[in-house]
Amino acid sequence: MPTRRGAALYAVDFAQERGWRRLRLLSSAANGYNRDYHAETAQGAQRPMMAVFHRDGDVIRHFWSSELFYAPCDPGQDPRHVGSLEPVWNLLDLTREGRPADWDEQLSYATAHPA
Predict the structure, then answer these.
(1) pLDDT at 57
(2) Rg for the chain (alpha carbons), in Å?
(3) Which of 62-83 are b and which e, b meaning 16 or more Cβ less than 10 Å from the residue's Cβ?
(4) In the predicted model, what is the mean pLDDT of the chain?
């Protein structure tokens, strides 16, 4: 379940805009989840982390986290801690030019050429 530090209402609006009707969204604004799972610095800055939990009967256990966010990156490269879940970057890795140094994925893009 995706979590975010801010208000849950923003996350719900964001999900509805994308047609995510069956995805349960949670807010971590009123608890220590982000700190506990290394998704927040001591100064309160938010980090893009992913955690996987496994339910076994009544017990929920932490199974995996994307701690590679904190591993050193190659010069000029961004962290690749959830790279296997980011298909755009994986496709760019297969091109001769690789990942563009001056491009970041966006939530939406302006139309370059009017139809």
Answers:
(1) 95
(2) 17
(3) eeebbeebeeeeeeeeeebbee
(4) 79
Length of the chain: 115
Residue 36, CA distances (Å) to 63, 88, 89, 102, 114 in order? 14, 29, 28, 33, 47
Instruction: Give the model's pLDDT for residue 86.
Output: 73
Q: Taking a C-beta distance cutoff of 8 angstroms, is the pair 105, 88 a contact?
A: yes
Terminal Cα distance for the chain, rounded: 38
Instruction: Name residues whose C-beta falls within 8 Å of residue 1's C-beta, 6 or more positions apart in sequence.
Output: 23, 24, 25, 26
- The amino acid present at 63, given as its one-letter code, is F
Q: What is the pLDDT of residues 37-64, one digit of tens each?
A: 888 899 988 888 888 889 999 999 988 8
The structural domains of the chain, with segments of one domain joined by +, span 3-65, 70-101
Distance CA 10, CA 25 (A): 10
Q: Are strands 59-65 and 51-56 parallel, antiparallel or unpaired?
A: antiparallel
